[in-house]
Specification:
The chain crosses the membrane at residues 15-35, 162-179, 185-202, 373-392, 1135-1156, 1177-1199, 1219-1236. Residues 476-550, 814-833, 949-985 are annotated as: Disordered. It holds the Pfam family E1-E2_ATPase. The structure is a single chain. This protein has 1306 residues and is of the alpha+beta class. The protein has an 11-stranded mixed beta sheet with strand order 17-38-37-36-18-30-35-34-31-32-33, with helices on both faces. The chain has a 9-stranded antiparallel beta sheet with strand order 20-19-29-28-27-26-25-24-23. A 6-stranded antiparallel beta sheet has the order 8-7-9-16-11-14, with no helix packed on it. Helix 12 packs antiparallel against helix 34 (1049-1088). The C terminus is likely disordered.
């Protein structure tokens, strides 16, 4: 060889190496760029450096707390703001719609402070921003009042998905296949990948659009600035602004007549009725009073505003104002008669903004590309690297082999461990479950959370509206000091005069006069007035419990007055009800408010007459007693009571002396002497009060000796017990004097008049659903805002509490101070542990609370535990909540924030949690849980309105049909009917426009009109049915799962489907793992020996594999959940033992037949690794063995009972395996020789045929038994039924394990 030739070869080799080097450098550069998208910390490492001085900083690395999303790198904003006459530089950054400002004194960033914790005196003197300079300074500091959910472009989201690690790897694999001249297959795979990602991006955009639709438009509002009122858009509001707010006088606003509160505001003058469903999920309107009561005394005026304690003074952003009453004597008079308010918070710091932040950022999204898949791939990579190394070493020994092809083959072996169809196969299983849940009216916005449902260990439930009905029923009265005698036979019930909605419903309908009296488990059959039910004496419950007075006609007058007039009910307009006798239109109204208060008013038979702008009045059934509201002290969650001052006018004929509604018992004569006017004609002033029994106890003039025992007895039976109290006031006081009386004076020395016993019955599906969950190895927990004793009783009926229970509460509860002014004002963590104790419902057991872990574990091993919200706040403050929460079964009187705390703590302890709730107050818990299930069901009142609307539609349809029969169209056809209220439907409007334009009405046009009417009716029935569409206030706004159901049964469906999906996903991992290991061997050892597949063979194998994956994903869960649980992860001895054991059998089978066929084939027919495919004996036998291995993999690893239907019941998979087995038998036996030749196969010697059939069947039996033996030897761990049993080491150390087991058996 000449020197010139040697130099050319050397240059070519150097050029090749340089090309390889450039390729590697380019690849590393691309990877470095991609890693800046994959890892925020890597981006910070390569693009930034740490600085010691904040003045040199340009960006901030923000690390959120656990379960609140991922780390972000945000720019640091520098700007100059005015502070008085000076301009100072402000350093800040925006993180998830919150602004953080640098505090030089603390050397730390703090959340932007809003003027929401000032004193009441400051707010009472507020006059808004007096100068333009102050306005500009506030605007620079707080920005616009917007709660925006940005909608990114499709291209931006698509870019985010295209640079995801898995997709980049898949594209890399496609490029490798193209280099190996698999062009069509590569392009088809790339098309499928892009289509799949486009579908995911489209779903994300739909979810964001749905969230944006929940935003309410900001309406114009009057703002007091620079000493004058001016109208501004709601976006322009600033904290500190003084505004006028109220319900619009006309229904021309975009909110349909309801004023949407644009920001969090404090009422300074006037009062409002607001609907806070967007925040709490409760449709009950809330009464909002001004801060006038707080300004009456100097001590309360100096008190600082608390959003939780004083929420009855605050209008929260996003809520709707149903009614308002302005104050003409306000310090600043409003121009439109609205209420005077001060803006506290704007933008994402409002209550609605915080809810939006919770929905957007509270937790990480779950995808298929999880860490488990990555670790499994890393395990398979070890085998692939070994196979690639084997090929590389052998290939380099052959100097004639193409180095490019060699390196390409090695890379393809390495990448073969990650099949490009992995995300699509996992998505296939999840999407099949998604459709199965949708058929059961369960909808999921994060599909890859479905497998988490199969791992659930702890199930948490809200109580009211979830486990129990959302309506309360008055069961009776206990402890009434002046019960009336039984009514004479044949007398009419108290309901005769109307009910709580007497002002809005017709009084002539018998159904409206029906009443409910006796309720324990469920309402009895109701009977109209005057029928046999009126003659009925005391029922069985009343005879069995003489202390319980169930008939409202026997309630004492003062107790009746408290139930009828001590409430916050309001009467709101619902629209026009039609023509009146005078030819005009009457406005239909409805009484709305707390279901408990509505049930009480309905039971006693009084009528509530709300008056817009005037005084609220309650009337007795005979309309002879009139109670007019003078002043109301609203219910406060921390005070746990409310009261009202009334003027009572009793016109009962023949009444001598004072009214029994004003004075009671033997003291009436003495008290009437101090009252002016005496007799029936003179109005009397009284105080009516109600609240939690332990709170009212401290306000009574005298406490009955059996006070505690009576209310605790009924509370322990699951009843909601409300204490009632009454006090007479001097009649000579005028209304102004009464309104100026402080609350402490009004609510002192009250007279006890009884306990009202309310029941909230369990839903019939709750007990069987939770029984199924308990029997299938799930811990059950209740998290509710209800009272501890009531919650414990309900929990005992649904298998949450199964042992004697202890409640951790404040010791002052028994002294009448809990929740009152003393205890309620104390901050959590400021008291000693001795202020709290464990007590049984009947107080037969009382144990001191200790934060020592051993003491808590001892108590938990003997009793089921319940914790009140106050005790939980104390445990959180002293740092033992993480230890206490896993030991408890019931959490009562907890706030929405505490619900989220409980769920997050359980997650932090390693429990996979499910949370089920029905209101937006459950949003925090629903988002924090691995599986959040929102129940989307219509309330009872909504169902009644829907039924009434349907009845009106039918009535209107009949009336229109009658009219149309006499006045048809030109062809004698009846015109389409009108809608509710006489309005034209869309179809009628179409025909009317055609007639106005003198167009002929054709049959096609009439058909079009009918179709439009049908579409409108369908839409209305969907909106007005029992299952409402998504709307603000639904917990489904933030929940991954939404069930259109009225019970918790969908939770069992979700868990069953989750177990099915989890089992399917695990077996897919195993099947893909076995396939990848076989592929790595085929591409290495067999590839070097020239063993290849034809295009037809590869296509058939791929089609069968895809079909069988599809059929596996269609497995259905069994109806009954088993106590046996699926393995929650693939990293367990069973999985890897089965995987490696089966691979060993497959590998042995493949090697044996390769060598057997190689020895039976002439050397002349052998192929090299570089040659094209040609049929020979080795290729034929190896193809058949690989096909048998593939079929065995699916048949052996399918998991049926106790989670899914068996392989025989999965007809599609079973038939496909039978067809595959028959096909392989036909080909192996050469029953159709032409078929073999078309597949590129040659005749097989007889001895190989026999061994192929026999050993294949033997391998199937061996792998099948191996799989079953390993399942039995290594079952999935089963969580204990109680949380304390998870701490086996500590229990064993304390010697409690055996004792706990004995108590459980007992």
């Amino acid at each position: 060889m000449s020197i010139k030739t040697q130099l050319a070869a050397t240059y070519r080799e150097l050029f090749t190496y340089h090309c390889y080097g450039l390729g590697v450098a380019a690849l590393l550069n691309i990877l470095a760029h991609l890693f800046t998208h994959w890892s925020i910390r890597f981006r910070a490492f390569v693009s930034t450096s740490n600085v010691s001085d904040i003045d040199d900083a340009e960006v901030v690395l923000v690390v959120p707390v656990r379960f609140n999303g991922s780390t972000e790198l945000v720019p640091l904003d520098r700007k100059y703001v005015k502070e008085g006459l000076m301009e100072v530089e402000e350093l800040s950054f925006d993180f998830r719609r919150q602004r953080f400002v640098y505090n030089p004194a603390a050397h730390a960033f703090e959340k932007l402070r809003f003027p929401d914790k000032e004193t009441f005196e400051t707010y009472g003197k507020a006059s808004g921003h007096g100068t333009e300079a102050k306005q500009l300074a506030a605007f620079d500091r707080y920005g616009l009042n917007r709660v925006d959910v940005p909608l990114p472009a499709f291209s931006a989201l698509m870019k985010e998905h295209l640079v995801a690690p898995f997709f980049v790897f898949q594209v890399f694999c496609v490029m490798l296949w193209m280099l190996d001249e698999y062009f069509y297959y590569s392009l088809f795979t790339l098309f499928m990948l892009v289509t799949f990602e486009s579908t995911v991006v489209g779903q994300r955009l739909r979810n964001l659009k749905e969230l944006r639709s929940l935003q309410t438009p900001k309406q114009n509002i009057y703002v007091y600035r620079c000493g004058k009122w001016e109208q501004m858009p709601g976006d322009a509001l600033l904290p500190g602004d003084v505004i006028s707010i109220g319900r619009p006088l006309s229904d021309t606003t975009s909110a349909g007549g309801d004023k949407v509160v644009p920001a969090d505001c404090l009422l300074v003058a006037g009062s409002c009725i607001a609907e806070e469903a967007v925040l709490t999920g409760e449709s009950t309107p809330q009464w909002k009073s001004n801060i006038g009561d707080q300004l009456l005394s100097e001590s309360t005026a100096k008190q600082r505003l608390s959003s939780k304690q004083h929420k009855h003074h605050i209008l929260f952003g996003g809520t709707k104002i149903l009614q308002h009453t302005g104050d003409k004597n306000a310090r600043i008079r409003t121009p439109d008669g609205g209420c005077l308010a001060v803006v506290l918070r704007t933008g994402f710091e409002t209550a609605q903004g915080r809810l939006m932040r919770t929905i957007l950022f509270s937790t990480e999204r779950v995808t298929a590309n999880n860490a488990e898949a990555g670790l499994f791939i890393a395990f398979l990579l070890l085998f692939a690297l070994s196979a690639a190394y084997y090929v590389l070493v052998n290939g380099l020994q052959d100097p004639t082999r193409s180095r490019f092809k060699l390196i390409l083959n090695c890379i393809m072996i390495v990448t073969s461990v990650i099949p490009p169809e992995l995300p699509m196969e996992l998505s296939l299983a999840v999407n099949a479950s998604l459709l199965a849940l949708a058929r059961k009216k369960v909808f999921c916005t994060e599909p890859f959370r479905i497998p988490f449902a199969g791992k659930v260990e702890v199930c948490c439930f809200d109580k009211t509206g979830t486990l129990t009905s959302d309506h309360l029923l008055l069961e009776g009265l206990v402890g009434d000091p002046e019960p009336r005698p039984p009514p004479p036979p044949g007398s009419s019930p108290a309901r005769e005069g109307g009910g709580s909605e007497g002002g809005s419903r017709g009084a002539g309908k018998g159904k409206d006069r029906e009443r409910r009296v006796t309720f324990r488990e469920a309402p009895e059959e109701l009977v109209p007035d005057g029928e046999a039910g009126a003659n009925k004496g005391p029922d069985e419950d009343e005879l069995a419990d003489p202390a319980l007075v169930k008939d409202p006609r026997r309630f004492g007058p003062r107790a009746t007055l408290v139930l009828a007039a001590c409430h916050s009910l309001v009467q709101v307009a619902t629209g026009e009800s039609g023509g009146s006798a005078g030819g005009g239109s009457s406005v239909a109204t409805e009484v709305v408010g707390d279901p408990l208060e509505k049930a009480a008013l309905e039971s006693v038979g009084w009528t509530f007459v709300g008056s817009n702008g005037g005084a609220d009045v309650s009337l007795s059934p005979e309309k002879l007693v009139r109670a007019t509201l003078l002043h109301r002290f609203h219910f406060s969650s921390h005070l746990k009571r409310m009261s009202a001052m009334l003027r009572v006018e009793d016109d009962t004929p023949g009444l001598s002396g004072s009214s029994p509604y004003s004075y009671g018992g033997a003291t009436a004569a003495a008290q009437s002497a101090t009252a002016s006017g005496g007799g029936a004609s003179g109005p009397q002033h009284v105080v009516v009060a109600k609240g939690a029994p332990e709170v009212l106890k401290g306000l009574l003039a005298s406490v009955p000796p059996d006070y505690d025992s009576q209310y605790k007895r009924y509370a322990a039976e699951g009843a909601r017990v409300i204490a009632l109290a009454h006090k007479a006031l001097p009649a000579d006081l005028d209304a102004a004097t009464l309104r100026s009386m402080p609350r402490e004076a009004v609510e002192s020395k009250l007279n006890f008049v009884g306990f009202a016993i309310f029941q909230c019955p369990l839903k019939p599906e709750s007990e069987p659903a939770l029984a199924a969950l308990a029997a299938s190895s799930h811990q059950l927990v209740m998290i509710t805002g209800d009272a501890p004793l009531t919650a414990c009783y309900a929990a005992s009926r649904v298998h949450i509490v199964t042992r004697p229970v202890l409640v951790l509460g404040h010791v002052e509860e028994d002294k009448g101070h809990a929740g009152g002014d003393t205890q309620g004002a104390k901050e959590a963590g400021t008291e000693d542990d001795s202020a709290f104790c464990w007590s049984s419902p009947d107080e037969s057991v009382r144990l001191p609370f200790s934060r020592d872990w051993d003491d808590m574990l001892r108590v938990a091993s003997e009793y089921d535990l319940a914790v009140s919200g106050d005790a939980l706040a104390h445990a959180t403050a002293v740092g033992v909540a993480s230890q206490l929460i896993p030991l408890c079964q019931v959490f009562a009187r907890v706030s929405p924030d505490q619900k989220e705390l409980v769920v997050n703590t359980l997650r932090a302890q390693g429990f996979v949690t499910l949370m089920c709730g029905d209101g937006t107050n459950d949003v925090g818990g629903l988002k924090a849980a691995h599986v959040g299930v929102a129940l989307l069901s219509a309330s009872e009142s909504a169902a009644k309105r829907a039924a009434a609307k349907k009845a009106a539609n039918k009535k209107d349809g009949k009336a229109v049909a009658t009219t149309a029969s006499g006045a048809g169209g030109p062809r004698g056809k009846a015109a389409p009917g009108t809608g509710p209220g006489g309005k034209r439907t869309a179809g009628q409007e179409l025909l009317a426009r055609a007639r106005a334009a003198n167009q002929p009405i054709t049959p096609r046009m009439e058909a079009m009109a009918r179709m439009m009417d049908n579409m409108e009716n369908s839409a209305m029935s969907g909106m007005d049915g029992d299952m409402p569409m998504l709307k603000p206030g639904d917990a489904s706004m933030a929940s991954p799962f939404t069930a259109k159901a009225v019970s918790v049964l969908p939770c069992t469906d979700i868990i069953k489907q989750g177990r099915c999906t989890l089992v399917t996903t695990v077996q897919m991992f195993k099947i893909l793992g076995l396939t990848c290991l076989s592929t790595a061997y085929s591409l290495s050892v067999l590839y070097l020996q020239g063993v290849k597949l034809s295009d037809t063979q590869a296509t058939v194998s791929g089609m069968l594999s895809a079909a069988q994956f599809l059929f596996i994903s269609q497995a259905k869960p069994l109806e009954t959940m088993s106590p046996v649980r699926p393995h929650p992860t693939i990293f367990n001895p069973y999985f890897f033992g089965s995987l490696l054991g089966q691979f060993g059998v497959h590998l042995g089978l493949l090697i044996y037949f390769y060598r057997l066929s190689l020895g039976s084939m002439p050397d002349s027919e052998r192929l090299s690794s570089e040659s094209e495919f040609k049929p020979n004996l080795v290729n034929t036998v190896c193809y058949l063995v690989q096909a048998v291995v593939q079929m065995m993999t699916f048949a052996v690893n399918y998991v049926g009972h106790p989670f899914n239907t068996s392989i025989v019941e999965n007809r599609n998979l079973f038939n496909s395996l039978r067809i595959s087995a028959a096909f392989l038998f036909v080909v192996a036996a050469e029953l159709v020789p032409g078929l073999n030749s078309s597949f590129g196969m040659v005749p097989i010697p007889h001895h190989i045929k026999v061994q192929l059939v026999g050993l294949s069947f033997g391998a199937f039996l061996l792998t099948w038994h191996l799989e079953r033996i390993l399942r039995a030897l290594f079952p999935a761990p089963v969580p204990p039924p109680k949380g304390y049993q998870s701490y086996t080491a500590d229990l064993r150390r304390l010697g409690l394990t055996e004792g706990a087991a004995e108590k459980k058996n007992k």
